[in-house]
Amino acid sequence: MSVTYYVTMPFIRTEEGSAPGQAQECPGEGAAIRRAEVMSRDPTNVAALAFKRTGDPGAGSFSDAVVLKKFGEASGLRTKPKYK
Question: Which of 3, 30, 41, 83 has its CA 20 to 30 A from that of 61?
Answer without folding.
Answer: 30
